[in-house]
Amino acid sequence: MVPTPSGGGEKMRLVDDAFAKICHAINDPCVQVRVLAATLLGKMPQVGQNFLDQTLDKKLMSDMRRKRSAHERQWEKVKSGEWSSGKKWADDAPQELIEAASVSLISSGAAGAFVHGLEDEFLEVRSAAVDSLCTLAIKSPDFANLALDFLVDMFNDEIEDVRLKAIDSLTKISKYIVLWEDQLETILAVLEDSSIDIREGLHKLLAVCHLMTKDCVKMCLDHILENLKRYPQDKKSIWKSLEGVGKNHPWVVLPLVPQLLSMHPFFDTSEPDPEDPAYVSVLILVFNSAKGCPTMATLFDEKLLRHYHYLRDTLPHFVPELNISNESITGTSDKQIASSSSGSGTSIGGNTNGRLILKELTAKLKSSSNLNSEMKTRLCKLILKDLKRLSEVDQEISAIAKFSSLYIKAQLVYTNCLSSSAWIQLTQNTQNEPLRLQIQSFMQLCLKMQYGFTGLSPKEYGIVMQLKLRALAFQLVYIVRGSNASALAICQNLLEQAETVQKYLEENNLTPDEFTFAMLKMLDSLDEPKPGTVAKHLLPLFEAHQIPLISFSSSIKMASATIIEPTGESDNALKFTAGLLLGIPVDAEIHNLEDTSYVRIMINYPDQQVHLICPRAQDFRSDSNGEVRLLTTISISHQAWTEACPVTISIVLDLRGPETNYNRKLMWKKDSTYIIQLSEEKQVLVSPKPAKRGI
Predict the structure, then answer these.
(1) Which residues face 561 on adjacent strands?
(2) Cα 581–583–588 angle (5° rounding)?
(3) Which member of 336, 350, 513, 592 has the greatest number of CB atoms within 10 A?
(4) TM segments (predicted)?
(5) φ, ψ dihedrals at 620, nearest 5°
(6) Helices 373-393 and 398-419, axial angle in degrees (round to 10)
(7) Which range has highest mean pLDDT (29-38, 418-427, 430-439, 617-626)?
(8) What residues have CB less than 8 Å from 451, skipping those under 6 apart?
(9) Are residues 598 and 682 in the same domain?
């Protein structure tokens, strides 16, 4: 406790006194001082509630003034000799005369500190004030309700970053507040903003906020559908927002269902298109509301039930599972379908059955070690077909099935290389092109396993590293014996990779396989590991040590990408002047990828030209689930064409940087060994037109 500024023997808490002094600094002439003051306000969550409330009101509140008691005022009159004459009515009644000197807890200049900060002409001060206001509002629900109107007003700020911070701040304190029509109207006006960050931030806010009335929900839906019409690329963000609105307001949405779905008590209305994004948005809102309002399901007719089951299959992340019988559509209840599928053991979501099948396939593969090479190859090809089908029907073990497929393919390619006549009779005079392509394929399979999957255990990652080391040894022997190119670079790369693998195995207490052990022992015994000497000692190791047969864990996840925009469905050609640039917006989602520094956008032109575009670091945006979104605009250019032709766009990993530091000379023209596809290709129809000649 410290004495109050005006004295009088009263005391106040130290944190309140410090807070009041910092509030006074919010009006300092220096910008840096105001920024620091606005930042420090958010670092004092223990401040009293009356001091917090005063920061949002420029007028000094009565509870922030120190008033003398009636006894003190009477004693002042006694000391001054003033007595009531009785001639004037109530002239001796106590009067609360507020003087400037009686204000002791906080100065009048410090009142409304946050109001001054939010209205400051410099964006740094406004941004710091929004952050501090949010921090204090999270600690105090009462203060959060008072700060609501001020944060909503900041949605109209001229600076995009400040608007985005205000939206994020309101999202963080959404559990303490309820929005009314007037506040919601100001918030929804931001949906017209051209910035996708602002719109998506507002979608997240609407997904977690609480609306007071059904009129608020209807207003929210109308503005969101208008947003969808103006910006179709916001489709997934809008669906996620309406999913949250439905979950938070089940009983508020209930009276709106007949109006939203155009139901009529007597007439049968036309069936809407279940592929229409606007109609799907309404259904997502209704179905998520029905999850918390069981009586809503009684309003669903046969058409709506069909649409529910369709969306449940196509959009399972947005449509929840409802306790709705399917008897009216198929004559069989959902429970009967579930029981029959579990009885037959062929359920798509049957994770246990999928794991059992995968375990059986792995056991068959391990038992094939006693078979001859021809029978073993046939068995591996059959297992590959089963793994491909298994990855299609069971999404939970799809990644491990695909990873196992790549490992088995690498075994087959390795066996084919060793048994080919080109390898047995490898010289510089023979036709070695098919063998070179097989070695490239073997290397690419190793790179896909190393960079295209996450969640590998240290043992599994060590196996992949040793497999890639074997591929590098393959390349070295091929260069030394089958070509006249210099092998110094790849030999140096092989030695460094061998050292890296050995260090990794020692750090994780892993035992190397037979090939790696023999190779490391051989390299240690050489005084001067020259390419010819190393290749000579490596050659007998390939036949002596085959690739080991192993099984993998179920925590593996596959890296992939989905291109949302461009959709590849438009038949309208994008026209531009030949030789100039055409900007194409790209919106893609990247899943299960830890390092995005190798991500590239690959463009294939009709004349076989290939361009790789490196996105900027700020184009990658991570969300709370660890997923990465790529939002950028790529520029394409070409000479004039006689007619419109498709340009193919895809998301790839470009591994030429980390993997070809020493063996760039091995890269032939149009070599795609170090390019790993992450997404499907999308086509964009473009038409470069010749420049018009001036007069």
Answers:
(1) 590
(2) 145
(3) 513
(4) none
(5) -95, 130
(6) 160
(7) 29-38
(8) 559, 598, 653, 655, 676
(9) yes
pLDDT number for residue 571? 82
Task: Let me know whether 571 and 624 are in one domain.
Answer: yes
Buried b (16+ CB within 10 A) or exposed e, 452-480: bbbbbeeebbbbbbbbbbbbbbbbbbbbb
For 652, the token pair is: 């790839």
d(CA 450, CA 461): 7
User: What integer pLDDT is reported at residue 126 of this predicted model?
Assistant: 94
Q: In the chain, what are the helix, strand and coil shares in percent, each to the nearest 5?
A: 55, 10, 35
> How much is the pLDDT for 82?
52
493, 666 contact by CB (below 8 A): no
Q: For 164-181, what is the mean pLDDT?
A: 92
At 111, the pLDDT band (50, 70, 90 cuts) reads confident
> How does pLDDT run across 660-677, given as a tens digit for each residue?
654 454 444 456 788 899
SS3 for 305-350 is: HHHHHHHHHHCCCCCCCCCCCCHHHHCCCHHHHHHHHHHHCCCCCC
Considering the domain architecture, whether residues 382 and 514 belong to the same structural domain is answered as yes
Closest to 18 measured CA to CA, from 36, 40, 49, 34: 40
CA distance 73 to 67: 10
Q: What is the pLDDT of residues 269-322, one digit of tens each?
A: 788 888 899 999 999 999 999 998 888 888 888 888 999 999 998 888 899 988
> What DSSP string describes 204-255?
HHHHH--BSSHHHHHHHHHHHHHHHHH-GGGHHHHHHHHHHHHHH-HHHHGG
Residue 351 and residue 189: Cα distance in Å, rounded? 46
Per residue, the 3-state secondary structure of 502-533, as one string, reads: HHHHHHCCCCCCHHHHHHHHHHHHCCCCCHHH
Name residues whose C-beta falls within 8 Å of residue 316's C-beta, 6 or more positions apart in sequence. Answer: none
The pLDDT tens digits of the residues spanning 646-664 come to 999 999 998 887 766 544 5
Q: Is residue 27 part of a domain?
A: yes
Question: Is a pLDDT exceeding 80 seen at residue 58?
Answer: no
Supply 602's token pair: 């690959």
Are 517 and 431 contained in the same domain?
A: yes
Q: Are residues 256 and 136 in the same domain?
A: no
What φ, ψ does residue 175 adopt, rounded to 5°?
A: -70, -15
Domain coverage including residue 320: 245-325
First to last CA, the chain: 85
Q: Looking at residue 76, what is its pLDDT? A: 60
Q: How far is CA 497 from CA 262, 473, 493, 502, 658, in A?
A: 66, 10, 6, 9, 12
Neighbour-count burial of 245, counting CB atoms closer than 10 A to its CB (0-12 exposed, 13-18 middle, 19+ buried): buried
pLDDT over 80 at 602, yes or no: yes
- In this structure, which amino acid lies at residue 104? S
Q: By the 8 A CB rule, do 586 and 629 touch?
A: no
Structure tokens at 228: 């969808």
DSSP 666: G
3-state secondary structure of 152: helix
Mean pLDDT of the chain: 81
Cα–Cα distances in Å, from 53 out to 34, 165, 365, 435, 613? 20, 22, 71, 78, 52
pLDDT in tens, 395-408: 778 888 888 889 88
Quick check: is 195 in a domain? no
**Which carries the bigger pLDDT value, residue 626 or residue 581?**
581
Tokens of 547: 């690739």
Q: 590 with 629: CB under 8 angstroms?
A: yes
Q: How far apart are CA 532 and CA 539, in angstroms?
A: 11
Check: CB of residue 480 under 8 Å from CB of residue 487: yes
Residue 22 CA, distance from chain mean position: 38
- Is residue 160's pLDDT more than 50? yes
